[in-house]
Amino acid sequence: MASTRLLCLLRSKAAAGAATSTQTLARSVSCRRHVSTSPSTQQSCMSAWVIDQYGSNGVLKYSEEAALPVVKSPCEVMIQVHAASLNPLDLAMRGGYGAKLLKLKRDTASVMNQDSEFPLILGRDLSGVVVDCGSEVSEFVPGDEVWAAVPPWKQGSLAEYVTLTEYEVSHKPQSLSHTEAASIPYVASTALSALVFAGGLCRDSALNKRVLIIGGSGGVGTFSIQLLKSWGAHVTVTCSHNAEGLVRGLGADEVVDYTPGDIAQRLEMMEKFDVILDNVGEDTEQWAMDLLKPWSGSKYVTLVTPLLHSTDSLGLLNGTINAGCFLCTKAAQVMVSKGVFYRWAFYTPDGPALDEIRRLVDAGKILPVVEAQFPFTQVPQAFQKMEQGHARGKTVVQVVENDQSEVAQQNMGTDTVDLDLGDQQTAKPAS
Ligand SMILES: NC(=O)c1ccc[n+]([C@@H]2O[C@H](COP(=O)([O-])OP(=O)(O)OC[C@H]3O[C@@H](n4cnc5c(N)ncnc54)[C@H](OP(=O)(O)O)[C@@H]3O)[C@@H](O)[C@H]2O)c1
After folding, report:
1. Beta strand 45-51 pairing with 125-133
2. Between the CA of residue 409 and those of 11, 17, 368, what are the distances in Å?
3. Residue range 218-238, pLDDT digits in tens
4. Nearest by Cα to 145 from 86, 84, 79
5. CB distance 361 to 175 below 8 Å
6. 180 and 157 in one domain?
7. Where are the annotated segments for Disordered (predicted)?
8. What string of H, E and C letters represents the secondary structure of 332-359?
């Protein structure tokens, strides 16, 4: 029975105070927004992991000549990335998933004139420090510690620098190190999109609502459990038997092991649910609708949709029409036959929503769940770890190694929370 210690850390108030004073100093010296502390006005390149073609892990290349993403519009913020984290989307995008739709979103003209999307930089989460701001940026100044989820149609965070719009960025929780903070933004934005916009839940309406999370032990699941518990919902989780300690430690009220195979029957014996969040897909749609309260506004929300596969295989127009028809038909069938809503959910960039999450994190209601950490030199190993599956929270890449801000925070004292991972095998984090 191997027990693994997770990095679920609540930082000391002293560390938070130190961070605040740094930010105050930065604010006091930056009266105007367009103040740059970026490395050098001469610099036009940066280090990044890029891909020049789609494929398996071999396509990941370390480059010191990736284009520096300088601020080009008044509402942009340039960030030095201290830590990034990986999501299943990074694995999929490495192999070409969503290429057609994301290319269109990146640059409409490029689809018409066959321009290449390469070199591409993967990585959707970041925690870092603002180094430059456009002239109309009002919420951030150079020196601010921030976190963000980088939209998949923008250059990613496995790089020294990322530039995003102000709207996509949020101040990082003061109680977390960059490594911990980088584990949250993409899963948080996705979970909020799924639970709030598709699932109709919110802080004021979730109290005592019965929510089933199918696949509770990965990135989205471990975050969603904590968010729902902070809202007062009753949370049931399906996961593998060796993740039970983890999800119970995060607050799950009831846990059902899916591995014996009769998951639908065992869930049917429980009181029916108001909302189901499906992080797994596969055959769940065949049985999950029967678990919802009929004719009472209950909702099945899935994150595993065929939209991008459809546009990849059928082209943009046919693929979108095909997926849209499937969604409408299925939603109508499910409503008529079962009296429940059927919905797809997608990650949505939303800095202000991350502000809300920051408050929950700094109040100790949401903990980062970091399963493995890799240095920037070992990004391919981090992808290999993700490929093994069976995630328990997140895999983080430390872009700034020996990050002095993290060392300082750790030296000032750290409370740790141990979560029992049972007898699962986890990847050995890189030292
Ligand atoms: N639509 C969107 O915009 C969007 C955004 C984010 C994520 N997603 C998708 O949402 C899904 C979840 O994302 P994630 O980041 O949480 O993935 P993840 O970190 O890889 O976690 C998946 C978890 O599901 C567990 N699992 C696998 N099969 C299961 C089953 N049959 N029943 C219960 N648990 C099972 C896995 O552990 P074991 O295998 O050990 O059980 C793992 O802990 C992924 O498919 C991802 O691509 C979609």
Report:
1. unpaired
2. 7, 11, 16
3. 999 999 999 999 999 999 999
4. 79
5. yes
6. yes
7. 408-431
8. HHHHHHHCCEEEECCCCCCHHHHHHHHH
Strand partners, 396: 85, 373
Q: Structural domain of residue 266, as residue ranges?
A: 200-344
Q: How far is the CA of 41 from the centre of ligand 1 (A)?
A: 42
Q: What is the Cα–Cα distance from 95 to 25, expressed in whole angstroms?
A: 44
Tell whether 179 and 56 lie within a shared domain. yes
Residue 213 Cα to ligand 1 middle (Å) = 11
- How many distinct structural domains can be found in the chain? 2
> Is residue 40 a part of any domain in this protein?
no
* pLDDT band with cut points at 50, 70 and 90 for residue 411: very low
* Residue 289 sits in the same domain as residue 374: no
Which whole-number Å values give the CA distances from 157 to 30, 240, 324, in the listed order? 26, 31, 31
The residue with tokens 């992808």 is 383
> Among the atoms of ligand 1, which is closest to the Cα of residue 281?
45
Residue % of the chain over a pLDDT of 70: 83
Q: Atom 41 (ligand 1): residue with closest C-alpha? A: 240
